[in-house]
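Example for tutorial group B:
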């Protein structure tokens, strides 16, 4: 069965964007050292990308305005805007949990939650994220867009692996359930 994977970077204090919505702080501690490419390995198991309008808009206007970086992947953009689909990009007003449930029942590779925080948290509330692949960036932002809100219900996770390079720590967790009298 397809898994829903959150693959995202956040600051050490839990933010995915600064106060202005910028992600220009996404680098290791030494600008002269290349960061490892864990994305290439991750994306091999993905054929579907989900994101909110703010994430999509940031990609096409700031991060990669000349080229759609997810070409060849079915990409769903959650928006209330009425826009025409183009190539592999699908604009949808469908609720995230409904779309994810439908996609999980179809054949295919994993489903990547690319962003943003609103989509992540809607899917967390209904327990639809199977894996959490989080790169912790060595910076304290102090404010901005928090990945996980403080009101989130407790979610139990199991650490699968860690990787460290250039001050960045990548953590891969999967969800787990609590057993009566014994934590799984």
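The residue assignment follows.
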């Amino acid at each position: 069965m397809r898994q829903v994977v959150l693959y995202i970077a956040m600051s050490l204090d839990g933010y995915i964007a600064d106060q202005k919505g910028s992600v220009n702080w996404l680098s290791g501690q030494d600008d002269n050292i290349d960061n490892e490419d864990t994305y290439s390995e991750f994306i091999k198991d993905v054929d579907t990308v989900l994101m909110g309008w703010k994430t999509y808009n940031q990609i096409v206007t700031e991060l990669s305005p000349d080229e759609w970086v997810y070409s060849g992947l079915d990409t769903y953009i959650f928006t209330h805007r009425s826009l025409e689909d183009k190539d592999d990009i699908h604009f949808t007003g469908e609720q995230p949990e409904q779309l994810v449930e439908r996609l999980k029942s179809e054949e295919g590779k994993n489903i990547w939650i690319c962003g943003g925080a609103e989509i992540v948290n809607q899917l967390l509330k209904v327990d639809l994220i199977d894996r959490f692949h989080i790169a912790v960036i060595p910076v304290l932002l102090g404010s901005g867009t928090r990945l996980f809100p403080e009101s989130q219900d407790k979610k139990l996770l199991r650490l699968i692996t860690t990787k460290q390079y250039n001050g960045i720590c990548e953590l891969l967790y999967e969800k787990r359930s609590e057993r009566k009298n014994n934590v799984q």
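The two ends are 21 Å apart (CA to CA). Compare this with the pattern of hydrophobic and polar residues in the output above.
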